[in-house]
């Protein structure tokens, strides 16, 4: 997808997040039932469609593609390490450059970028929805702030 959308590696950095809480573990029987086609037909159909189309992509047969995948895994790990350093330092002026490669230009890591990349899922979801709603959300917040202030006057 990176190549199809003309993204660079900095656009696709990620942080793994847990889907289930650590306090609840599925038994093997619960897991088998959850993954069965009867319970999860939609997911099964989506997986099969994406899996079939994935292996038909010509890039997958190119050894350079798999070198790029390995390179991305390394720099994604480097990004995670450098972001931990940045956030522990607390320095808003933090900056680190991941060198350019044949697959991607140099990537600048800043404190703000690291903060966004390492954010927990609920604050991240809030920030993404604010970004998606953009200016309308800002106006909505200003409106509610002002109406609350005005209603306190009376």
Name some characteristics of this structure:
154 residues, mainly alpha, two-stranded antiparallel ribbon, 5 helices, 2 strands
Q: Can you walk through the features of this model?
A:
This protein is mainly α. It has two domains: 1-14 and 29-118, no CATH class; 120-154. Helix content is 58%, strand content 5%. The model has no long low-confidence stretch (mean pLDDT 81).
Short description:
The chain has five helices and two strands, in the order αααββαα. The protein is mainly α.
User: Given the helix and strand composition, which structural class is it?
Assistant: mainly alpha
Strands of the widest sheet, in order across it, are 1-2
Strand content: 5-15%
Q: Main beta sheet: strand number and arrangement?
A: 2 strands, antiparallel
Gyration radius, in Å = 22 Å
SSE string: HHHEEHH
Low-confidence spans: pLDDT under 50, at least 5 residues?
A: none
Distance N terminus to C terminus? 56 Å
Q: Any idea how many domains?
A: 2
Helix content: 55-70%
Q: Which geometry do the CA atoms define?
A: extended
| Number of DSSP helical runs | 5
Mean pLDDT value: 81
Subcellular location: Golgi apparatus membrane
Membrane topology: Single-pass type II membrane protein
Main location: Golgi
Keywords: Glycoprotein, Golgi apparatus, Membrane, Signal-anchor, Transferase, Transmembrane, Transmembrane helix
């Amino acid at each position: 997808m990176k190549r199809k959308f003309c993204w660079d590696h900095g656009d696709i950095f990620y942080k793994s997040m847990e889907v289930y809480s650590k306090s609840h573990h599925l038994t093997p029987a619960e897991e088998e039932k959850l993954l069965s086609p009867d319970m999860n037909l939609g997911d099964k159909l989506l997986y099969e469609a994406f899996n079939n189309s994935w292996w038909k992509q010509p890039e997958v047969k190119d050894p350079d593609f798999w070198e790029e995948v390995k390179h991305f895994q390394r720099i994604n790990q480097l990004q995670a390490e450098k972001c931990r350093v940045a956030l522990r330092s607390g320095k808003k002026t933090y900056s680190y450059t991941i060198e350019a490669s044949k697959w991607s230009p140099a990537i600048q890591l800043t404190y703000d970028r690291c903060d966004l990349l390492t954010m927990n899922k609920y604050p991240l979801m809030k920030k993404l929805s604010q970004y998606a709603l953009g200016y309308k959300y800002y106006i909505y917040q200003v409106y509610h702030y002002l109406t609350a202030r005005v209603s306190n006057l009376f």
